[in-house]
Design a protein that fits this description.
- The protein is of the alpha/beta class.
- It has 13 helices and 13 strands.
- The strands form three sheets. The chain has an eight-stranded mixed barrel with strand order 4-5-6-9-10-11-12-13, surrounded by five helices. Strands 1-2-3 form a three-stranded antiparallel sheet, covered by helices on one side. Strands 7-8 form a two-stranded antiparallel ribbon.
- It is globular, with a radius of gyration of 21 Å.
- The two termini are about 25 Å apart.
């Protein structure tokens, strides 16, 4: 792949925050790639931007570094995507992309994969598989239906999730979209204060309790079952946001829980509501607590802030059934691929995830299919449909 020209521009994500879009041009092709950002971020993940007084200043600083230090090392050279990532690592020189910024590095990395796809006449998901040694396959969308925690809403649990187990990717997406729309009517009936407000990820905001929310989703699961579909429920507790160093503070409920009480509650929720998926029930360094809970429940306990898409941390997670994969936690496609492969070596369920501050770049969908992930945690509405619609298009090509 030979890049003839490289540019960068500042664009906005779904939180109206600035981010970077990288443009590469080659012989007869032109690609664009942008990077998302998160709201609740683990301390071990790649640093989003160089340190600065404001995010606007930090993004401008990243753009300047790309133009001055990165692009001259890429333009005019014949490079594979992995070689572009190696250059990013060398130029940055830190473990967490603290100089370039993980979001800026990721935009360059994704653009390289897209350029590789064009030069080899491949779809983007085929290029991911070809460049990094995977077999593409359909993924099951895992959609955020009701939100809370740092994303908004009246519950301390950050996300209430639903997936379908139909083999057809297109059918999964379309049936879940029906369920999302019907859920709005159910919430109107069950929550007198419900107004249809949405979180940053277009999940519904409700004033129902945690149990009330899970009971409502359980009814939806039963409705889908009666229609011939097997639905799965899940939660993202985002417990790192609750942890104060000694205990878990449920601020919206006004409750403080010890580690033992947190574990008992998570086990109760998993069993009472037959949860198929539970993300981050404990804080970001609680490897022992994750493993202990996993040994007691059938639920796929999944690490997000625990693993931060880091192969070394995932290797420490033996006995935990699930790993969340976020491209910008790693800072490059190559680092993300290393994390996916580490998770597969541990026989983990792999869930590729969006961030709260998303862009209109559909690459996430291609990456999830390209690495053969089990789930794509994307959301159900708003800007999330960019990724869902791309999965619908990909489903015609598989």
């Amino acid at each position: 792949m030979k890049i003839q020209d490289a540019k960068v521009r500042i664009v906005l994500n779904s939180k109206a925050q600035p981010t970077l879009e990288v443009i590469f041009r080659g012989a007869g092709w032109r690609v664009e790639a942008s990077s998302p950002s998160g709201t609740s971020a683990g301390s071990h993940e790649a640093q989003a931007w160089p340190r600065a007084k404001t995010v606007d200043e930090a993004v401008r600083k990243s753009a300047e570094i790309l133009v001055r230090d990165v692009f001259p090392e890429i333009v005019g050279k014949d490079l594979e995507p992995a070689e572009v990532d190696e250059l990013l690592e060398k130029i940055d020189g830190t473990e967490r992309f603290e100089r370039i910024g993980g979001n800026a590095a990721l935009a360059v990395s994704i653009a390289a994969v897209k350029g590789f796809a064009w030069e080899n006449e491949l779809e983007y998901f085929e290029a991911v598989a070809e460049a990094y040694g995977f077999e593409p396959r359909p993924v099951k969308p895992l959609e955020n239906f009701i939100g809370g925690g740092a994303h908004g809403g009246a519950t301390d649990i950050q996300e209430f999730l639903m997936a379908l187990n139909a083999e057809d990717m297109r059918e999964n997406i379309l049936v879940l979209s029906w369920a999302y729309r019907e859920l709005k009517e159910m919430l109107k009936e069950r929550d007198p204060r419900f107004e249809g407000t949405l979180t940053l990820e277009s999940a519904y905001v409700t004033y129902l309790s945690t149990d009330g929310i899970l009971e409502t989703l359980g009814i939806m699961r039963d409705i889908l079952h009666d229609a011939g579909y097997e639905a799965a429920l899940g939660i993202d507790a985002a417990a790192n946001e609750m942890w104060d160093g000694e205990k878990y503070v449920w601020r919206k409920e006004g409750v403080e829980r010890t580690t033992e009480e947190q574990a008992a509650l998570m086990e109760t929720l998993a069993e009472r509501y037959e949860l198929a998926y539970m993300e981050d029930p404990f804080h970001e360094d609680a490897f022992d607590e994750f493993k202990a809970l996993q040994s007691k429940v059938r639920t796929v306990i999944t690490g997000d802030d625990l693993f931060v898409t880091n192969a070394k941390r995932i290797e420490r997670g033996k006995g935990i059934k699930g790993a969340l994969i976020k491209l910008n936690q790693a800072g490059s496609v190559s680092r993300t691929v290393e994390a996916v492969k580490a998770a597969r070596r541990q026989e983990m369920v792999v869930t590729v995830s969006h961030r709260s501050g998303e862009t209109d770049d559909p690459f996430l969908s291609h990456f999830a299919v390209g690495v053969g992930a089990d789930y794509a945690k994307i959301g159900a509405a708003g800007i999330r449909i960019v990724k869902l619609n791309e999965l619908l298009r990909i489903s015609e090509l598989l």
